[in-house]
Write a structure and sequence with these properties.
The complex is a heterodimer of chains A (202) and B (206).
Chain A (H helix, E strand, L loop, with lengths): L33 H4 L7 H4 L32 H81 L5 H16 L3 H5 L6 H4 L2
Chain B lengths: L1 H28 L9 H11 L6 H52 L5 H33 L6 H26 L2 H26 L1
Helix pairs in contact in B: 2-5, 3-4, 3-5, 4-5, 4-6
Classes of the chains: A mainly alpha (202), B mainly alpha (206).
Amino acid sequence: MDANNKHPQPSLRPMQDITPVPAKTEHQEPEKPTAEILPKTEPKAADVDIVAAPVEAVPGSEVRSEQPLPDLSADPQTTPPNAEQKPLKDADKELDSIVKEVNAEKAHSEKQDSKSSKPIMVAVIALVIAMLLGVVAFFAFKNTEESSTQKDTGQSQNATQQTTLSPEDLNTASKDIESSLNQFNDEQDFGAGEVSDQTLGL
Amino acid sequence: MNKKFFGGVVFCAVLVASLAGPAFSGAVLSAHGEEGSTLADRIAERKAKVQVQLDTAASDRLKAKCKAAQTVLKNMQQRNQNGHNNRKQRYEAISNKLTDIVSKLEKQNVNATELKNVMNQYKQKLAVFQDDFEHYNDALEDAIAMDCASDPAGFKVNLETLRSLRQKLIADAKDIKSLQPQLVKALANARIALANTRPATNGETN
């Protein structure tokens, strides 16, 4: 029998181990001798511990079992329920404390994880922003390069178109310069009258 | 981490400041064209050049009326700004056009010596005009900005400088304009020379 099994169930016990004990009632017919019922077998060592009082089966005599058979459910090795609950409570308490400790450790580690993940998050965000800026700068540079290339191309085309002068160009230039120089009125622009004492009210 | 982040921010700020600083200070220094010169320095310099004697009555009159005169000067500055800038830009455009023509004529193996000489004279006269124009603008700015009531003699010196610079600018402009006949003649000669070289060039290419 397993010593740890404190509450063995009788139904699980093998039937041949159980010796039927007739209930003693007045209306009961006289019992037949046990010897007639039970086969004549040597008591096994395993049965000894179960059957408390060995029945001496003498042929030709009635066997009456006056002594009550001990309750099979009551294991002599098990402790009574009250005594059993105390260690249980202690175990529960211990278990609770262990669970609490584990939870506390878990929470602490999570906290540490969250703390250690902050700088990583900042670094990741900085990296993402840097990458975005890099992409924007790249495209901006690309666009400006393209536009400047187009501009240069246009300018060079214009330059090649106008690298050579015609006599008409010189004629036009002469007229433009003449009109530009003649359009200014020097006396009006830089005349002494505007800064005279009279004008300034001095 | 925080220290590193803060260090990065400080580094960026220093970098931006070091890049933007020279440009900003350059803009400030170029406001009056003369690096390191202050309003007081410029007035002292003008006082040394232009001798002005003010009696007490003249000094008191200037002290009383110079603020109003500064307002008149300010209005005049705003009124003439477009005209003056337009003149300056047109003079520069003529200079650029002459440079371009001479360069192209030389590339086309056309004799442009005469035009080149006139162009160089024009550029010299233009440089004189631009220099005087800068000085005139400085003197006008100073006359408007200075504390005339506390320094009436300085204000008077600034006014005299303005008047003389305006006369000088008229002379510079006339000097530039005096080159007009030479320019027209040089361009006409260059046109003839170009017309003479073109058939030969066309014959070579064809």
